[in-house]
From TrEMBL:
Domain FAS1-like dehydratase, residue spans: 32-170
Organism: Mycolicibacterium holsaticum
Lineage, uppermost ranks: Bacteria, Bacillati, Actinomycetota, Actinomycetes, Mycobacteriales
Protein name: FAS1-like dehydratase domain-containing protein
InterPro entries according to UniProt: FAS1-like_DH_region, HotDog_dom_sf
SUPFAM superfamilies: Thioesterase/thiol ester dehydrase-isomerase
């Protein structure tokens, strides 16, 4: 890749910062309010048997005042079901996007490998039973090109802000992937 092409690629990457990852930018509304049944399933599946999640009497007398959701469950409330059919054609994206994939130009430039590297949460408060959660996701940062064991690539980080029905921030999640050239 020429220096000019690299500069143009960098400009396009920088232009994504602060923009919605779905190309549309509308909040995603959870299909269901936070509810005790899903909290119970999560708690049992992960072996996190906190009485604040499972015991109404304990929760009522706790600082929460009612059953709450494990905070890292935030993502699950608004997560659409994955659609495996066509995932390769969507560049590994597990959902059908309403707009064009804003990172398609990166794949077109040969950065077709994708691997998740890490996720971080910042929790403002525990989601409560009955909360109606929405999420908005924007590109947060994109690294300079890095040489990695997987191949040369860019670390792409987006941040999802989760809000309740009153628009109050419940938490944030940063998610990072490496978009790399395979076969380097």
């Amino acid at each position: 890749m020429t220096d000019t092409a690299k500069d143009e690629l960098r400009e396009r990457l920088d232009a994504l910062i602060g923009k919605p990852t779905d190309g549309v930018g509308k909040p995603v509304r959870a299909p269901d309010p936070v509810n005790a049944a899903m909290i119970r399933h999560w708690a049992y599946a992960l072996g996190d048997m906190s009485p604040a999640y499972l015991d109404p009497e304990f929760a009522k007398n706790s600082r929460y005042g009612d059953i709450v959701s494990p905070p890292v469950m935030l993502q699950t409330w608004t997560m659409p079901p994955p659609k495996l059919e066509g995932i390769h054609e969507r560049g590994g994206v597990p959902i059908e996007m309403k707009g064009e994939n804003p990172l398609q130009f990166l794949a077109d430039a040969g950065y077709t490998g994708i691997i998740a590297t890490n996720s971080e949460f910042e929790i403002e408060r525990y989601p409560r039973v009955g909360d109606e959660i929405t999420s908005e996701t924007v590109f947060d940062s994109i690294s300079d090109e890095k040489k990695t064991a997987m191949g040369d690539g860019y670390f792409v980080t987006w941040v999802t802000t989760y809000r309740d029905q009153n628009g109050e921030v419940v938490g944030r999640q940063w998610f990072r992937t490496l978009r790399f050239k395979t076969g380097n």
